[in-house]
Design goal:
By secondary structure, this protein is mainly α. Helices cover 87% and strands 0% of the residues. Helix 3 packs parallel to helix 6 (130-146) and helix 16 crosses helix 17.
Length: 489
Protein backbone atom coordinates (compact mmCIF):
# COMPACT_ATOMS: atom_id res chain seq x y z
CA UNK A 1 0.00 0.00 0.00
CA UNK A 2 1.27 3.45 -0.89
CA UNK A 3 2.57 5.30 2.16
CA UNK A 4 1.32 8.78 2.84
CA UNK A 5 3.95 11.46 3.02
CA UNK A 6 2.92 13.78 5.91
CA UNK A 7 5.34 16.53 4.90
CA UNK A 8 4.30 16.46 1.25
CA UNK A 9 0.62 16.27 2.13
CA UNK A 10 1.01 19.11 4.63
CA UNK A 11 2.74 21.27 2.02
CA UNK A 12 0.04 20.38 -0.47
CA UNK A 13 -2.63 21.18 2.08
CA UNK A 14 -1.02 24.53 2.89
CA UNK A 15 -0.69 25.57 -0.75
CA UNK A 16 -4.09 24.18 -1.69
CA UNK A 17 -5.90 25.76 1.24
CA UNK A 18 -4.05 29.06 0.86
CA UNK A 19 -4.88 29.21 -2.85
CA UNK A 20 -8.33 27.76 -2.26
CA UNK A 21 -8.95 30.42 0.39
CA UNK A 22 -8.73 33.22 -2.14
CA UNK A 23 -10.37 31.15 -4.84
CA UNK A 24 -13.15 30.29 -2.48
CA UNK A 25 -13.50 33.90 -1.41
CA UNK A 26 -13.89 34.60 -5.11
CA UNK A 27 -16.37 31.78 -5.51
CA UNK A 28 -18.26 32.48 -2.30
CA UNK A 29 -18.62 36.15 -3.18
CA UNK A 30 -19.36 35.49 -6.85
CA UNK A 31 -21.54 32.46 -6.27
CA UNK A 32 -23.27 34.11 -3.32
CA UNK A 33 -24.16 36.99 -5.62
CA UNK A 34 -25.35 34.47 -8.24
CA UNK A 35 -27.21 32.57 -5.55
CA UNK A 36 -29.00 35.67 -4.26
CA UNK A 37 -29.77 36.93 -7.77
CA UNK A 38 -31.10 33.47 -8.71
CA UNK A 39 -33.47 33.50 -5.74
CA UNK A 40 -34.68 37.01 -6.59
CA UNK A 41 -35.07 36.19 -10.27
CA UNK A 42 -36.99 33.02 -9.36
CA UNK A 43 -39.57 35.27 -7.74
CA UNK A 44 -39.66 37.67 -10.69
CA UNK A 45 -39.71 35.12 -13.51
CA UNK A 46 -41.67 31.95 -14.17
CA UNK A 47 -40.26 28.47 -14.96
CA UNK A 48 -41.07 28.90 -18.68
CA UNK A 49 -38.79 31.96 -18.90
CA UNK A 50 -35.97 30.20 -17.06
CA UNK A 51 -36.41 27.33 -19.49
CA UNK A 52 -36.06 29.55 -22.57
CA UNK A 53 -32.75 30.94 -21.34
CA UNK A 54 -31.64 27.43 -20.37
CA UNK A 55 -32.13 26.35 -23.99
CA UNK A 56 -29.79 29.14 -25.09
CA UNK A 57 -27.25 28.40 -22.37
CA UNK A 58 -27.09 24.73 -23.33
CA UNK A 59 -26.28 25.56 -26.94
CA UNK A 60 -23.86 28.41 -26.24
CA UNK A 61 -21.68 26.20 -24.06
CA UNK A 62 -20.62 24.12 -27.05
CA UNK A 63 -19.66 27.18 -29.06
CA UNK A 64 -17.78 28.50 -26.04
CA UNK A 65 -15.64 25.36 -26.09
CA UNK A 66 -14.62 26.23 -29.65
CA UNK A 67 -14.17 29.78 -28.50
CA UNK A 68 -11.54 28.87 -25.89
CA UNK A 69 -10.23 25.65 -27.55
CA UNK A 70 -8.35 24.64 -24.41
CA UNK A 71 -5.95 27.59 -24.67
CA UNK A 72 -6.24 28.33 -20.94
CA UNK A 73 -5.23 24.79 -19.94
CA UNK A 74 -2.46 24.77 -22.55
CA UNK A 75 -0.95 27.96 -21.12
CA UNK A 76 -1.14 26.78 -17.52
CA UNK A 77 0.63 23.49 -18.28
CA UNK A 78 3.26 25.14 -20.51
CA UNK A 79 6.85 24.88 -19.19
CA UNK A 80 8.82 27.05 -21.61
CA UNK A 81 8.43 29.88 -24.14
CA UNK A 82 5.43 31.22 -22.26
CA UNK A 83 5.42 34.56 -24.06
CA UNK A 84 5.29 32.97 -27.50
CA UNK A 85 2.61 30.50 -26.37
CA UNK A 86 0.49 33.31 -24.90
CA UNK A 87 0.74 35.30 -28.15
CA UNK A 88 -0.37 32.27 -30.15
CA UNK A 89 -3.25 31.58 -27.79
CA UNK A 90 -4.42 35.19 -27.92
CA UNK A 91 -4.39 35.34 -31.71
CA UNK A 92 -6.22 32.02 -31.94
CA UNK A 93 -8.85 33.08 -29.40
CA UNK A 94 -9.65 36.36 -31.15
CA UNK A 95 -10.18 34.54 -34.45
CA UNK A 96 -12.21 31.79 -32.79
CA UNK A 97 -14.36 34.36 -30.99
CA UNK A 98 -15.43 35.89 -34.29
CA UNK A 99 -15.96 32.50 -35.93
CA UNK A 100 -18.03 31.27 -32.95
CA UNK A 101 -20.27 34.34 -33.07
CA UNK A 102 -20.97 33.88 -36.78
CA UNK A 103 -21.66 30.17 -36.23
CA UNK A 104 -24.08 31.00 -33.40
CA UNK A 105 -25.96 33.51 -35.54
CA UNK A 106 -26.36 31.00 -38.35
CA UNK A 107 -27.23 28.07 -36.09
CA UNK A 108 -29.92 29.88 -34.06
CA UNK A 109 -32.94 28.83 -36.20
CA UNK A 110 -31.82 25.18 -36.18
CA UNK A 111 -31.45 25.23 -32.39
CA UNK A 112 -34.93 26.70 -32.09
CA UNK A 113 -36.27 23.98 -34.39
CA UNK A 114 -34.61 21.23 -32.34
CA UNK A 115 -36.16 22.47 -29.09
CA UNK A 116 -39.49 23.26 -30.82
CA UNK A 117 -39.49 26.89 -29.62
CA UNK A 118 -39.17 29.79 -32.07
CA UNK A 119 -38.59 32.26 -29.21
CA UNK A 120 -35.06 30.91 -28.84
CA UNK A 121 -33.70 32.42 -32.08
CA UNK A 122 -33.44 36.12 -31.10
CA UNK A 123 -32.43 35.25 -27.52
CA UNK A 124 -29.62 32.98 -28.67
CA UNK A 125 -28.30 35.46 -31.22
CA UNK A 126 -28.03 38.15 -28.56
CA UNK A 127 -26.38 35.79 -26.07
CA UNK A 128 -23.76 34.93 -28.74
CA UNK A 129 -22.26 38.41 -28.25
CA UNK A 130 -20.64 36.93 -25.12
CA UNK A 131 -18.36 34.74 -27.29
CA UNK A 132 -16.09 37.38 -28.86
CA UNK A 133 -16.13 39.43 -25.65
CA UNK A 134 -14.91 36.54 -23.49
CA UNK A 135 -12.41 35.31 -26.09
CA UNK A 136 -10.65 38.67 -25.99
CA UNK A 137 -10.08 38.39 -22.24
CA UNK A 138 -9.20 34.70 -21.94
CA UNK A 139 -5.39 34.99 -22.07
CA UNK A 140 -5.09 37.85 -19.53
CA UNK A 141 -7.39 35.97 -17.16
CA UNK A 142 -5.39 32.77 -17.65
CA UNK A 143 -2.13 34.60 -16.90
CA UNK A 144 -3.58 35.55 -13.50
CA UNK A 145 -4.26 31.86 -12.84
CA UNK A 146 -0.89 30.72 -14.12
CA UNK A 147 0.84 33.17 -11.79
CA UNK A 148 -1.23 31.88 -8.85
CA UNK A 149 -2.51 35.45 -8.38
CA UNK A 150 -5.71 34.28 -6.77
CA UNK A 151 -6.20 37.43 -4.72
CA UNK A 152 -6.09 39.56 -7.86
CA UNK A 153 -8.39 37.18 -9.74
CA UNK A 154 -10.99 37.87 -7.08
CA UNK A 155 -11.63 41.33 -8.52
CA UNK A 156 -12.88 40.43 -12.03
CA UNK A 157 -14.77 37.43 -10.63
CA UNK A 158 -16.55 39.52 -8.01
CA UNK A 159 -17.40 42.54 -10.11
CA UNK A 160 -18.56 40.54 -13.12
CA UNK A 161 -20.93 38.52 -10.91
CA UNK A 162 -22.19 41.68 -9.24
CA UNK A 163 -22.81 43.43 -12.56
CA UNK A 164 -24.50 40.37 -14.06
CA UNK A 165 -26.88 40.02 -11.12
CA UNK A 166 -27.76 43.71 -10.86
CA UNK A 167 -28.45 44.07 -14.57
CA UNK A 168 -30.56 40.90 -14.71
CA UNK A 169 -32.62 41.83 -11.63
CA UNK A 170 -33.06 45.45 -12.74
CA UNK A 171 -34.30 44.47 -16.20
CA UNK A 172 -36.54 41.74 -14.77
CA UNK A 173 -38.20 44.32 -12.52
CA UNK A 174 -38.98 46.35 -15.62
CA UNK A 175 -40.58 43.36 -17.32
CA UNK A 176 -37.83 42.26 -19.71
CA UNK A 177 -38.46 38.59 -18.85
CA UNK A 178 -35.85 36.19 -20.27
CA UNK A 179 -34.02 39.09 -21.97
CA UNK A 180 -32.94 40.27 -18.52
CA UNK A 181 -30.88 37.10 -18.02
CA UNK A 182 -29.25 37.45 -21.45
CA UNK A 183 -28.21 41.08 -20.92
CA UNK A 184 -26.87 40.17 -17.48
CA UNK A 185 -24.56 37.60 -19.08
CA UNK A 186 -23.28 40.11 -21.65
CA UNK A 187 -22.54 42.82 -19.09
CA UNK A 188 -20.84 40.32 -16.74
CA UNK A 189 -18.55 39.03 -19.53
CA UNK A 190 -17.64 42.58 -20.53
CA UNK A 191 -16.69 43.59 -16.98
CA UNK A 192 -14.61 40.43 -16.51
CA UNK A 193 -12.69 41.02 -19.76
CA UNK A 194 -11.94 44.67 -19.02
CA UNK A 195 -10.73 44.01 -15.47
CA UNK A 196 -8.62 41.01 -16.55
CA UNK A 197 -6.70 43.17 -19.00
CA UNK A 198 -6.16 45.89 -16.42
CA UNK A 199 -5.03 43.58 -13.63
CA UNK A 200 -2.99 40.98 -15.55
CA UNK A 201 -0.67 43.65 -16.94
CA UNK A 202 -0.10 41.38 -19.90
CA UNK A 203 -0.04 42.50 -23.50
CA UNK A 204 0.71 40.61 -26.72
CA UNK A 205 4.22 41.16 -28.06
CA UNK A 206 3.50 39.35 -31.33
CA UNK A 207 6.55 37.15 -30.86
CA UNK A 208 5.68 33.73 -32.22
CA UNK A 209 7.42 30.38 -32.31
CA UNK A 210 6.21 27.58 -34.55
CA UNK A 211 6.95 24.84 -31.99
CA UNK A 212 5.14 26.74 -29.23
CA UNK A 213 2.17 27.47 -31.46
CA UNK A 214 1.95 23.84 -32.53
CA UNK A 215 2.24 22.65 -28.92
CA UNK A 216 -0.50 24.98 -27.70
CA UNK A 217 -2.83 24.03 -30.55
CA UNK A 218 -2.27 20.27 -30.17
CA UNK A 219 -2.75 20.35 -26.41
CA UNK A 220 -5.75 22.63 -26.80
CA UNK A 221 -7.19 20.28 -29.41
CA UNK A 222 -7.18 17.37 -26.97
CA UNK A 223 -8.76 19.58 -24.29
CA UNK A 224 -11.39 20.77 -26.76
CA UNK A 225 -12.42 17.23 -27.65
CA UNK A 226 -12.54 16.31 -23.99
CA UNK A 227 -14.60 19.38 -23.11
CA UNK A 228 -17.03 18.71 -25.95
CA UNK A 229 -17.54 15.23 -24.60
CA UNK A 230 -17.76 16.56 -21.06
CA UNK A 231 -20.36 19.17 -21.98
CA UNK A 232 -22.39 16.58 -23.83
CA UNK A 233 -22.19 14.34 -20.79
CA UNK A 234 -23.11 17.20 -18.44
CA UNK A 235 -25.92 18.55 -20.61
CA UNK A 236 -27.63 15.35 -21.70
CA UNK A 237 -30.14 15.76 -18.88
CA UNK A 238 -30.92 19.36 -19.88
CA UNK A 239 -31.20 18.43 -23.55
CA UNK A 240 -33.52 15.48 -22.95
CA UNK A 241 -35.65 17.34 -20.39
CA UNK A 242 -35.95 20.35 -22.71
CA UNK A 243 -36.65 18.27 -25.81
CA UNK A 244 -39.08 15.75 -24.27
CA UNK A 245 -40.61 17.50 -21.24
CA UNK A 246 -40.71 21.12 -22.44
CA UNK A 247 -39.53 24.59 -21.38
CA UNK A 248 -41.44 24.73 -18.07
CA UNK A 249 -39.98 21.40 -16.90
CA UNK A 250 -36.55 22.51 -18.05
CA UNK A 251 -36.93 25.70 -16.01
CA UNK A 252 -37.79 23.70 -12.88
CA UNK A 253 -34.98 21.21 -13.48
CA UNK A 254 -32.51 24.03 -14.15
CA UNK A 255 -33.23 25.63 -10.79
CA UNK A 256 -33.17 22.21 -9.11
CA UNK A 257 -29.65 21.72 -10.47
CA UNK A 258 -28.37 25.30 -10.19
CA UNK A 259 -28.67 25.66 -6.42
CA UNK A 260 -26.71 22.47 -5.55
CA UNK A 261 -24.24 23.28 -8.31
CA UNK A 262 -23.56 26.72 -6.87
CA UNK A 263 -22.96 25.21 -3.43
CA UNK A 264 -21.25 21.87 -4.15
CA UNK A 265 -19.58 21.93 -7.55
CA UNK A 266 -17.94 25.25 -6.68
CA UNK A 267 -15.66 23.33 -4.32
CA UNK A 268 -14.45 21.17 -7.21
CA UNK A 269 -13.82 24.13 -9.46
CA UNK A 270 -12.03 26.08 -6.74
CA UNK A 271 -9.63 23.30 -5.87
CA UNK A 272 -9.07 22.48 -9.54
CA UNK A 273 -7.82 26.02 -10.20
CA UNK A 274 -5.32 25.60 -7.37
CA UNK A 275 -4.39 21.92 -7.79
CA UNK A 276 -3.96 21.97 -11.58
CA UNK A 277 -0.95 24.34 -11.52
CA UNK A 278 0.50 22.53 -8.47
CA UNK A 279 0.14 19.05 -9.97
CA UNK A 280 1.57 20.30 -13.27
CA UNK A 281 4.78 21.21 -11.44
CA UNK A 282 5.35 17.64 -10.19
CA UNK A 283 3.88 15.71 -13.13
CA UNK A 284 6.93 13.44 -13.49
CA UNK A 285 7.07 12.41 -9.82
CA UNK A 286 4.71 9.44 -9.45
CA UNK A 287 5.15 9.07 -5.69
CA UNK A 288 4.32 12.73 -5.11
CA UNK A 289 1.35 12.48 -7.44
CA UNK A 290 -0.04 9.54 -5.49
CA UNK A 291 0.35 11.27 -2.16
CA UNK A 292 -1.25 14.48 -3.40
CA UNK A 293 -4.02 12.56 -5.19
CA UNK A 294 -5.04 10.85 -1.97
CA UNK A 295 -4.85 14.13 -0.11
CA UNK A 296 -6.97 15.73 -2.81
CA UNK A 297 -9.62 13.00 -2.54
CA UNK A 298 -9.72 13.29 1.24
CA UNK A 299 -10.13 17.07 1.22
CA UNK A 300 -12.70 17.12 -1.57
CA UNK A 301 -14.87 14.50 0.14
CA UNK A 302 -14.52 16.24 3.48
CA UNK A 303 -16.33 19.26 1.99
CA UNK A 304 -18.62 17.90 -0.70
CA UNK A 305 -20.09 14.87 1.10
CA UNK A 306 -21.59 16.84 4.01
CA UNK A 307 -22.63 19.62 1.61
CA UNK A 308 -24.43 17.26 -0.76
CA UNK A 309 -26.17 15.00 1.73
CA UNK A 310 -26.83 17.89 4.09
CA UNK A 311 -28.45 19.97 1.36
CA UNK A 312 -30.60 16.98 0.39
CA UNK A 313 -31.93 16.87 3.96
CA UNK A 314 -32.70 20.59 4.22
CA UNK A 315 -34.07 21.08 0.69
CA UNK A 316 -37.74 21.23 1.83
CA UNK A 317 -36.84 23.91 4.39
CA UNK A 318 -34.78 25.79 1.81
CA UNK A 319 -37.57 25.88 -0.77
CA UNK A 320 -40.09 26.87 1.89
CA UNK A 321 -37.87 29.73 3.08
CA UNK A 322 -36.51 31.21 -0.15
CA UNK A 323 -38.67 30.25 -3.12
CA UNK A 324 -42.30 30.95 -3.94
CA UNK A 325 -45.02 28.31 -4.27
CA UNK A 326 -44.56 28.12 -8.04
CA UNK A 327 -41.24 26.33 -7.41
CA UNK A 328 -42.42 23.59 -5.00
CA UNK A 329 -41.71 20.95 -7.66
CA UNK A 330 -37.96 21.50 -7.25
CA UNK A 331 -37.80 19.85 -3.80
CA UNK A 332 -37.30 16.19 -4.73
CA UNK A 333 -35.08 16.68 -7.82
CA UNK A 334 -32.92 19.20 -5.94
CA UNK A 335 -32.36 16.72 -3.11
CA UNK A 336 -31.41 13.95 -5.55
CA UNK A 337 -29.10 16.20 -7.57
CA UNK A 338 -27.34 17.28 -4.36
CA UNK A 339 -26.49 13.67 -3.57
CA UNK A 340 -25.36 13.01 -7.15
CA UNK A 341 -23.02 16.01 -7.15
CA UNK A 342 -21.49 14.94 -3.84
CA UNK A 343 -20.68 11.49 -5.22
CA UNK A 344 -19.45 12.80 -8.58
CA UNK A 345 -17.02 15.17 -6.85
CA UNK A 346 -14.69 12.22 -6.27
CA UNK A 347 -14.80 11.40 -9.98
CA UNK A 348 -13.86 15.00 -10.69
CA UNK A 349 -10.41 14.54 -9.17
CA UNK A 350 -8.89 12.28 -11.88
CA UNK A 351 -9.83 14.73 -14.64
CA UNK A 352 -7.53 17.32 -13.08
CA UNK A 353 -4.74 14.76 -12.85
CA UNK A 354 -5.05 13.71 -16.51
CA UNK A 355 -4.57 17.30 -17.67
CA UNK A 356 -1.78 17.99 -15.18
CA UNK A 357 0.33 15.08 -16.45
CA UNK A 358 -0.27 16.11 -20.07
CA UNK A 359 -2.57 13.16 -20.79
CA UNK A 360 -5.81 14.95 -21.74
CA UNK A 361 -6.55 12.32 -24.37
CA UNK A 362 -7.58 9.97 -21.56
CA UNK A 363 -10.64 12.18 -21.05
CA UNK A 364 -11.61 11.49 -24.65
CA UNK A 365 -11.20 7.73 -24.29
CA UNK A 366 -13.33 7.62 -21.16
CA UNK A 367 -16.00 9.68 -22.87
CA UNK A 368 -16.60 6.78 -25.27
CA UNK A 369 -18.02 4.93 -22.27
CA UNK A 370 -19.54 7.79 -20.29
CA UNK A 371 -21.54 9.51 -23.00
CA UNK A 372 -23.55 6.45 -24.14
CA UNK A 373 -24.10 5.57 -20.47
CA UNK A 374 -25.52 8.96 -19.48
CA UNK A 375 -27.69 9.14 -22.62
CA UNK A 376 -29.24 5.75 -21.91
CA UNK A 377 -29.68 6.45 -18.20
CA UNK A 378 -31.30 9.87 -18.61
CA UNK A 379 -33.46 8.79 -21.54
CA UNK A 380 -34.75 5.77 -19.62
CA UNK A 381 -35.34 7.62 -16.35
CA UNK A 382 -37.04 10.57 -18.10
CA UNK A 383 -40.24 8.51 -18.22
CA UNK A 384 -40.60 9.47 -14.55
CA UNK A 385 -40.19 13.16 -15.30
CA UNK A 386 -37.56 15.45 -13.82
CA UNK A 387 -37.53 13.42 -10.59
CA UNK A 388 -36.53 10.35 -12.58
CA UNK A 389 -33.82 12.27 -14.42
CA UNK A 390 -32.40 13.51 -11.10
CA UNK A 391 -32.40 9.95 -9.71
CA UNK A 392 -30.56 8.77 -12.81
CA UNK A 393 -27.83 11.28 -12.04
CA UNK A 394 -27.03 9.39 -8.83
CA UNK A 395 -26.59 6.13 -10.75
CA UNK A 396 -24.36 7.81 -13.32
CA UNK A 397 -22.27 9.49 -10.58
CA UNK A 398 -21.55 6.07 -9.06
CA UNK A 399 -20.54 4.66 -12.45
CA UNK A 400 -18.18 7.54 -13.29
CA UNK A 401 -16.59 7.55 -9.84
CA UNK A 402 -15.80 3.84 -10.17
CA UNK A 403 -14.54 4.12 -13.75
CA UNK A 404 -12.28 7.10 -13.10
CA UNK A 405 -10.99 5.59 -9.89
CA UNK A 406 -9.96 2.45 -11.74
CA UNK A 407 -8.32 4.38 -14.58
CA UNK A 408 -6.26 6.69 -12.37
CA UNK A 409 -5.17 3.71 -10.26
CA UNK A 410 -3.62 2.19 -13.38
CA UNK A 411 -1.86 5.43 -14.34
CA UNK A 412 -0.20 6.32 -11.05
CA UNK A 413 -0.21 2.74 -9.73
CA UNK A 414 -2.19 2.24 -6.57
CA UNK A 415 -4.88 -0.14 -5.35
CA UNK A 416 -8.52 0.91 -5.45
CA UNK A 417 -8.86 0.12 -1.75
CA UNK A 418 -6.43 2.98 -1.09
CA UNK A 419 -8.85 5.46 -2.63
CA UNK A 420 -11.67 4.14 -0.46
CA UNK A 421 -9.39 4.38 2.55
CA UNK A 422 -8.97 8.08 1.78
CA UNK A 423 -12.77 8.46 1.67
CA UNK A 424 -13.53 6.66 4.94
CA UNK A 425 -13.35 9.72 7.25
CA UNK A 426 -15.79 11.73 5.13
CA UNK A 427 -18.16 8.76 4.73
CA UNK A 428 -18.34 8.00 8.46
CA UNK A 429 -18.78 11.65 9.40
CA UNK A 430 -21.45 12.17 6.76
CA UNK A 431 -23.42 9.14 7.94
CA UNK A 432 -23.33 10.49 11.50
CA UNK A 433 -24.47 13.90 10.31
CA UNK A 434 -27.34 12.45 8.26
CA UNK A 435 -28.54 10.36 11.22
CA UNK A 436 -28.55 13.28 13.66
CA UNK A 437 -30.03 15.85 11.26
CA UNK A 438 -32.70 13.37 10.17
CA UNK A 439 -33.62 12.77 13.80
CA UNK A 440 -33.78 16.51 14.53
CA UNK A 441 -36.08 17.11 11.56
CA UNK A 442 -38.30 14.15 12.47
CA UNK A 443 -38.75 14.97 16.15
CA UNK A 444 -38.59 18.78 16.18
CA UNK A 445 -40.11 19.59 12.76
CA UNK A 446 -38.21 22.90 12.35
CA UNK A 447 -39.63 25.44 9.91
CA UNK A 448 -38.77 28.77 8.32
CA UNK A 449 -35.39 30.43 7.94
CA UNK A 450 -34.54 30.03 11.63
CA UNK A 451 -35.27 26.32 11.45
CA UNK A 452 -33.18 26.03 8.29
CA UNK A 453 -30.11 27.64 9.85
CA UNK A 454 -30.59 25.69 13.08
CA UNK A 455 -30.59 22.35 11.21
CA UNK A 456 -27.61 23.41 9.05
CA UNK A 457 -25.66 24.40 12.16
CA UNK A 458 -26.44 21.09 13.87
CA UNK A 459 -25.22 19.22 10.79
CA UNK A 460 -21.95 21.16 10.63
CA UNK A 461 -21.23 20.70 14.34
CA UNK A 462 -21.92 16.95 14.21
CA UNK A 463 -19.71 16.49 11.15
CA UNK A 464 -16.75 18.40 12.60
CA UNK A 465 -17.13 16.76 16.02
CA UNK A 466 -17.21 13.28 14.46
CA UNK A 467 -14.22 14.08 12.23
CA UNK A 468 -12.13 15.03 15.27
CA UNK A 469 -12.54 11.46 16.52
CA UNK A 470 -12.49 9.58 13.22
CA UNK A 471 -9.41 11.27 11.77
CA UNK A 472 -7.65 13.51 14.26
CA UNK A 473 -4.61 13.71 11.99
CA UNK A 474 -6.71 15.16 9.16
CA UNK A 475 -8.27 17.67 11.55
CA UNK A 476 -4.87 18.77 12.87
CA UNK A 477 -3.44 18.91 9.36
CA UNK A 478 -6.24 21.19 8.17
CA UNK A 479 -5.86 23.37 11.27
CA UNK A 480 -2.09 23.71 10.81
CA UNK A 481 -2.47 24.48 7.10
CA UNK A 482 -5.06 27.16 7.83
CA UNK A 483 -2.88 28.62 10.58
CA UNK A 484 0.20 28.80 8.35
CA UNK A 485 -1.91 30.25 5.56
CA UNK A 486 -3.23 33.01 7.84
CA UNK A 487 0.28 33.85 9.03
CA UNK A 488 1.54 34.02 5.43
CA UNK A 489 -1.32 36.30 4.44
Amino acid sequence: MTEYSPTLEENFAKETIRGSFWNYISFVSGKLLNFVSTLILARLLVPQQFGLVAYCTIAIQYLDIINTSGMDSALISRKDKIEEAANSAFAANVILGIVSFIAAWLAAPSIAYFFKTDEITPLFRLLAVVLPISSFGLVPYTMLLRGLRFQTKLIPDLFSSLAKGLVAIGLALFGFGPWSLIWGQIVGATISTILSWILAKWHPTWRFDSASTRGVLVYGGHITLGEFAGQLRNNVDYIIVGRILGAASLGIYTLSYRIPELIIRSVNLVVEKVAFPLLSQIQSDSESLRSIYFGYVRYIAMFTFPMGFGLALITPLFVESFLSEKWTQVVTPMALVSIALAISSVGFVPGVLYKAINRPEILNWLSLIKIPAIILIVWYFSRWGIVGVAAGQILFACITMSLDGYMVSRIIEFKIIEMWHALVPAIICTISMVFVVGAVEFFLSPSGIIGLFFVALIGAVVFIFTLSFVDRNLTNLAYKALKKMSVRQ
